[in-house]
Amino acid sequence: MYIRHLELNNYRNYQEAAIDFDPGINIIYGDNAQGKTNLIEAIYLCATSKSHRLSKDKELIRINEKDAHVYMVFEKNDIIETVDVHLKKIGKKNIAINKNPIKKLNELFGLINIIMFSPEDLGLIKNGPKDRRRFIDLELSQLKPLYMYYLSHYHKVLKQRNQLLKNNHNRLDMQSLLDVWDDQLVKYGTTIIEMRKNFIEDLKPILYEKHLHLSGKKETLDMVYENDVDVEDYKVKLAAARTGDLKKGTTTVGPHRDDIRFDINKIDIRIYGSQGQQRTAALALKLSEIELIKKQVNHAPILLLDDVLSELDHQRQHYLIEHLKDIQTFITCTGIDDFIKKELNGYQLYQIKDAKVINESDLHKC
Ligand SMILES: Nc1ncnc2c1ncn2[C@@H]1O[C@H](COP(=O)(O)OP(=O)(O)OP(=O)(O)O)[C@@H](O)[C@H]1O
């Protein structure tokens, strides 16, 4: 699959832009603060409904404007499809697929498989568990759109249970209300745990191979799902934690407290890994995602590399570039160094200057 065309209207610093893309490698370069990341953020938005920078929808609208539009045309299995996103300063955004407005966000998930890789992702191993949970959630919702359904229901119930724990201590029906919420939590939470378990089992062997190669066959990487509760004893543990939860005013048991551990030669590198080991493992993880998507959905995802090449040494850059065959890739950078020119066989070049896109592509096609 690949993105053919993108149009922006009042999106971030863009007033108007219309760009045609190449099915291969698209390099978006320019000085700082010109609009490079904004451009690939718009692609990410069309695929996932959200900004990868966790910005609020309103922040995506050009300052002083009331609304913004992003329109994307992509080709999937030889069929041309479109996504429209209409962001509004007041009210909820509207999304349409092939001009038909969608009712639920999960209609969008899985339509366009996208992998974003930015310098922040290199910190995935050393950052807190929240980032690792976000990683699983994003990947799984692309691979299995139903996952998003269970996750959003789980979080809704969790929020309501927490509100009850915090604010309604004197209610006479407290225990019976909590019984109802607990049943719901276990219902959705169990599916989440099972789906996460399967996802990690699928990713594990791919990650092992990628990392072995990247480390020059010196290190073996293992990925372990640290689920807060097992499916079998979830209900019992939730009930046992109730008195404590009432004191703390929050739910202390469940998949919202899950984590993933990464071990190199049996040592937990979240805590004991060197910075190089942590970054190599993060890169291996991103490359494994590409492989897993190819395997499970039968087509290559679209890869967005936001300013990440300059963060890698030549050996890692080389290995990453080896993975770009047959994958539409967007690379943002401030300049194109000789290494990239030598490594890439052909690419389209776009210069971004003050939110204007200058297509220099034909000069660089091989
Ligand atoms: N809602 C908005 N309205 C107008 N301008 C915005 C809005 N949001 C962000 N900007 C501006 O967009 C500009 C470009 O941002 P972007 O993150 O795309 O830069 P970049 O080209 O990727 O730069 P860098 O190389 O520094 O990462 C910034 O100057 C920022 O202030």
Automatic annotation (TrEMBL):
Transmembrane segments: none annotated. It is found in: Cytoplasm. It holds the Pfam family SMC_N. ATP binds at residues 30-37. Keywords: ATP-binding, Cytoplasm, DNA damage, DNA repair, DNA replication, DNA-binding, Nucleotide-binding, SOS response. The keyword DNA damage applies. One of its GO terms (cellular component) is cytoplasm. It comes from the Bacteria. GO terms for molecular function: ATP binding; single-stranded DNA binding. Its main location: cytoplasm. GO terms for biological process: DNA replication; DNA synthesis involved in DNA repair; double-strand break repair; SOS response. Coiled coil: none annotated. Signal peptide: none annotated. The keyword ATP-binding applies. InterPro entries: DNA-binding_RecF, DNA-binding_RecF_CS, P-loop_NTPase, RecF/RecN/SMC_N, RecF_2. Residues 2-333 form the RecF/RecN/SMC N-terminal domain. Belongs to the RecF family. The RecF protein is involved in DNA metabolism; it is required for DNA replication and normal SOS inducibility. RecF binds preferentially to single-stranded, linear DNA. It also seems to bind ATP. NCBIfam families: recf. This is DNA replication and repair protein RecF.
